[in-house]
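Entry for the shared binder. Reason: the reviewer on the internal report wants the predicted structure included alongside the sequence.
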Amino acid sequence: QVQLVESGGGVVQAGGSLRLSCAASGRTFSRFKMGWFRQAPGKEREFVAAISWSGGYIYYGDSVKGRFTISRDNAKNSVDLQMNSLKPEDTAVYYCAGDTSMGASVNSWHGSYDYWGQGTQVTVSS
């Protein structure tokens, strides 16, 4: 089994920054593609960012491109999401997810991911 635990959420003013971290335990983390998703109340789960096992492929959702940065440290079994220039519309529960599928490409569809964390709340005040 794989366990994913997010941390780093909180309340921040618009224009501010937060860094989310996801710690993984269990199976070989370094071979997982990792992603971040978010879900606001009453809305569908939205793709935020994904990174391949090597870090060579990175993909961002249009709404966060240029503001968020995903990174991973396979030695530490962790993946981070640096969020800058935060907006009130970034308010959501943020989830870390692991994709065990083969291939180098990363996925933006939440159905591709096999493991999920419990989520961490990010609130951006205006």
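Summary line for the report: DSSP finds no helices and eleven strands in the chain.
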